[in-house]
């Protein structure tokens, strides 16, 4: 393993990175174990973000490592078009168990973005298969993040992402976001105000007619745009309205899936069952790229029994890759054997109190928490949006803690195996950083 600095960093065009700034002052990780990364200089870095929200069981879980090693020596690749391999079927059954048999089927992808585009295409094809080809409109939400595919950025609600690429999919509307600093500041769990924002769906229906609308997609908790938590009753209302109008409801659980809210999925937490769920990240504990779409039985039935009699013409070379399936099967075992969700529940209150203890520190204008995720919003520097929080990110890394920022919001999402001592370390350092931040 190469643990030294690369000879040159000029050729790798890094994703979602200020490439010039990074290359002048790089942060290079060379190994990881449990709650910590190690950087190229031998410093330990406490992982406050589970990588990119994707390592719920902690780094380098040996059971998952062993499962991947064993599979790679046995079956390096197998197509899942017109053939298959046992692990892909075993995993599908286990995922149906893990989600309490609320879904009938699972479709494999390689990432969250692919899961989102798959779910959107399934929604369009579902209505066609049932003889409702006019249902083509898709509805997302402001400040929603649904990955980087053309479908995902079209339903996504991040202005910067959308503006960079010109016209996107036609026939897309956006519900308003639910963030309300005036009414819901410093919320713990679901904020009180804003369930009525779901009724905006009625406005869109009135405008276009329900018979033109295929699906609504939302993140139950919007993660990448700064931890926006749905107001009490909002998701239930959205479910009711979608059902009333024959519109499919898709939950994008790429971040919230696999324990982030201390329940297996956010739909468990909020007790709202969508027609489809997208997931990725924690599915393999981040070790091998994989995403998935869970569909209710009626979605699959429409293709099998519908008047059009079509199968879904869609899939990826690496759908259900053997290494990904092996990693995901082992991850589900780790969740069970190591009682990962029990630990998340056990530390959740201590975590929440620690996050909210930052209230009153310089620049902090809001804190919001749910499960083991937190958003800490800072007042922006005039004319330099995002600069203050990015400064905190750089200082934190230099001080040995990994945090994530989006605009001027610090988002925290640690591995679910964290202990009180890690919480103390994380917030001790963060408090000092905030006190000394420009
Ligand atoms: N949906 C959501 C809600 C996400 O948070 C992300 C990634 N952060 C994605 C989709 C895209 O996933 P990926 O980066 O694996 O394509």
Task: Write out key terms for the chains shown.
aminotransferase, 16 helices, Aspartate Aminotransferase, domain 2, binds 4'-deoxy-4'-aminopyridoxal-5'-phosphate, Aspartate Aminotransferase, domain 1, 2 domains, single chain, 4-stranded mixed beta sheet, 16% strand, alpha/beta, 438 residues, 7-stranded mixed beta sheet
Description:
- With 438 residues, this protein is an alpha/beta fold.
- The protein has 2 domains: 19-57 and 339-435, Aspartate Aminotransferase, domain 1 (Alpha-Beta Complex), CATH 3.90.1150.10; 65-337, Aspartate Aminotransferase, domain 2, CATH 3.40.640.10.
- The chain has helices spanning 19-24, 50-53, 62-74, 86-98, 112-129, 150-155, 159-163, 181-184, 200-208, 234-245, 266-270, 297-305, 322-337, 340-356, 387-398, 420-435; strands spanning 29-33, 36-39, 44-47, 105-109, 137-141, 172-175, 213-218, 248-252, 276-279, 291-295, 364-370, 373-378, 401-402, 404-406, 409-412.
- The strands form 3 sheets. A 7-stranded mixed sheet has the order 4-10-9-8-7-5-6, sandwiched between helices. It has a 4-stranded mixed sheet with strand order 1-2-3-13.
- Strand 11 (364-370) and strand 12 form a beta hairpin.
- Helix 3 (62-74) runs antiparallel to helix 13 (322-337) and helix 4 packs parallel to helix 13.
- It starts with 18 loop residues before the first helix and ends with a helix.
- The structure holds 4'-deoxy-4'-aminopyridoxal-5'-phosphate (PMP).
- Residues 111-113, 116, 145-147, 219, 223-224, 252, 254-255, 280 line the site of 4'-deoxy-4'-aminopyridoxal-5'-phosphate.
- 4'-deoxy-4'-aminopyridoxal-5'-phosphate binds next to helix 5.
């Amino acid at each position: 393993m190469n643990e030294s600095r690369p000879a040159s960093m000029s050729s790798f065009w890094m994703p979602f990175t200020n490439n010039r700034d990074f290359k002048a002052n790089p942060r290079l990780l060379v190994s990881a174990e449990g709650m910590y990364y190690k950087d190229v200089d031998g410093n330990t870095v406490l992982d406050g973000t589970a990588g990119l929200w994707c390592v719920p069981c902690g780094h380098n879980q040996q059971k998952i490592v062993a499962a991947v090693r064993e599979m790679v020596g046995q079956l390096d690749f197998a197509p899942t078009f017109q053939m298959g391999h046992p692990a892909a079927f075993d995993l599908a059954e286990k995922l149906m168990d893990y989600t309490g048999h609320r879904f009938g089927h699972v479709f494999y992808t390689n990432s969250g973005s692919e899961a989102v585009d798959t779910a959107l295409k399934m929604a369009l094809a579902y209505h066609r298969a049932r003889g409702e080809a006019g249902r083509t409109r898709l509805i997302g939400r402001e400040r929603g993040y649904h990955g980087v595919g053309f479908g995902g950025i079209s339903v996504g609600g991040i202005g910067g992402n959308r503006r960079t690429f010109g016209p996107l999919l036609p026939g897309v509307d956006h519900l308003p976001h639910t963030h309300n600093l005036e009414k819901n500041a410093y919320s713990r769990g679901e904020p009180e105000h804003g369930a009525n924002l779901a009724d905006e769906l009625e406005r869109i229906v009135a405008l276009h007619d329900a018979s033109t609308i295929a699906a609504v997609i939302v993140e139950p908790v919007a993660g990448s745009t700064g931890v926006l938590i749905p107001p009490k009753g909002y998701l239930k209302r959205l479910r009711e309205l979608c059902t009333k109008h024959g519109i499919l409801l898709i939950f994008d659980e790429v971040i919230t899936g696999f324990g982030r809210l201390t329940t297996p999925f956010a739909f468990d937490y909020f007790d709202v069952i969508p027609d489809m769920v997208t997931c990725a990240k924690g599915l393999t504990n981040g070790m091998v790229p994989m995403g998935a779409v869970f569909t209710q039985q009626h979605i699959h039935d429409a293709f099998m029994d519908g008047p059009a009699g079509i199968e879904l013409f869609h899939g990826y070379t690496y759908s259900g890759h053997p290494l990904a399936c092996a990693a995901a099967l082992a991850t589900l075992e780790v969740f069970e054997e190591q009682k990962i969700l029990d630990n998340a529940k056990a530390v959740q209150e201590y975590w929440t109190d620690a996050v909210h203890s930052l209230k009153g520190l310089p620049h902090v204008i809001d804190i919001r928490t749910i499960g083991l995720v937190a958003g800490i919003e800072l007042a922006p520097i005039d004319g330099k949006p995002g600069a203050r929080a990015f400064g905190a990110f750089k200082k934190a890394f230099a001080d040995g803690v990994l945090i994530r920022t989006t605009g001027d919001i610090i988002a925290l999402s640690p591995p679910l195996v964290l202990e009180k001592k890690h919480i103390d370390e994380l917030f001790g350092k963060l408090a000092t950083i905030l006190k000394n931040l420009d």
